[in-house]
Amino acid sequence: MNAPFKLRPYQQEAVDATLNHFRKSDESAVIVLPTGAGKSLVIAELARLARRRILVLTHVKELVEQNHAKYESYGLTGGIFSAGLKRKESHHQVTFASVQSVSANLDQFRDEYSLVIIDECHRVSGVDTSQYQRIIELLREQNDSLKVLGLTATPYRLAMGWIYRYHYRGFVRGEDNKPFQHCIYELPLSYMISRGYLARPELVNAAVAQYDFSALPQDRFGEYAENDVNQLLSKHKRVTRSIIEQVAELAAERQGVMIFAATVDHAREITDYLPERETALITGVTDQKDRDLLIQRFKQRQLKYLVNVSVLTTGFDAPHVDFIAILRPTQSVSLYQQIVGRGLRLDEGKQECLVIDYAGNHVNLHHPEVGEPKPNPDSEPVQVFCPGCGFANIFWGKTDGDGRVIEHYGRRCQGLLEPEDGIHSERPQQCDYRFRFKECPHCGAENDIAARNCHECQQAIIDPDDQLRDALKLKDAMVIRCAGLSLGAEGSKLKIIYHGEDGEELSESFDFSKPGQRAVFNRLFGRRFANGQAPKVLGSAAEVLELQALLPAPDFVIARKEKHYWRVQERVFDYQGSFRKAF
To answer: Which pLDDT score, from 0 to 100, does residue 4 have?
Structure first.
């Protein structure tokens, strides 16, 4: 049967990429399309083309219903298995289901399925006992060639990083433990906006006071504790009032306003400042019937303001929204894109969507996710070329006034190597160049700075915390928190002085006229110049002095007493443990 509509070119490309991938491989795959790109149409087309049984999973009933409706617009009939929609049909060739309902009724899914499609697949965790993984495992018992396809606008989880390992453009996203193996198609948000598929975001700086969350402690994912946020916000009620006054003033010429609050208490305060008859508040504890009614009234434009806390970032579609006010902090580019994406769908008479960030997030909407929590507020995405393979990596880092990278926090090159002599292995090989590394004391191989065992010889690598703890117990050992270093040269001899946080000093010398000492220096420091961006093999002390600004200091230096002087034994770089580093 012919489709009732013609797919956009990029939607057809996504379908073709899926067919090509699964003709060659059973490994799981991801399609990345921005919010508003029409993922449900891609799903409908794939389901239309299928000849065997398919299960389409998602996490909210609204998306189950939306994906099912697009499929049936072809004149085909599909089943719905969702307690929230009061339907439990599992006998059709194509079943659209909520992951919660399937997980609670696994016995009804013992037939052989050829393909599982997961919408909003960034919600899939790598935990074997999760609902998604249990369903996939059950279906694989019936068909060991089961294909698994995910679709998302944001292929990233704060607790995990990237949800896939290999990208079709030739780079890799981290280690093996990912829910999906391959990203087979991706379209940037800027493409959709520039070609008129999405409304243009009008990003405006707040003209009133903003919140400053920078002083709050962050967890390892770069997020803030709710109690800390509430305490800060409780001290700035005037700021909140003035922000909402500006929002209300600007909303006079807007159709629909979504306000993203930081906490439930914050959302209630915001709601108090808005016209009661025009405002709805939705949180995670809002009754489902009340939530459905409020969303319906908002979509019908009976309400103008929709205030929410972390519940309407995905699976929500109201094209008339033309004003997004962000009053919550986030370090996640993905979450930021999801929030702004609520206002980018096209609607009759809508030219653009006003976006104001009152939380000082400083997120570049059009920049790709870096894949790691932001290490500090001053960091920005930077491009770093691999000295080994030439791949252009995107890491967190810092630049100078001319835009040159002066520091970055990348560990390993993300590039994928071309197969040698035309030999294609089943899995592409990641470039093994490491910008930061821990050297194995047994075989000299370079390992990730968090590695406990060497990836080459499998021998245990001494943990830096154990090194520091053991040294601190010794009477003839000195451990300094290194706050910096300085260099000096006398003829062929290079002297390095390590300066401790409390004024202590340790030093060591290398005689470049002796091949052995020259080789030791280059082994210890050559790969560390400019954080590995510019690895060097230096032949003289004078050459080192010329480049001393590029030589980073270690975090700790350990020395042992030898008669009348201290001999440096260990230099701990890129320390990640529990001891405090120098300020």
So the answer is: 62
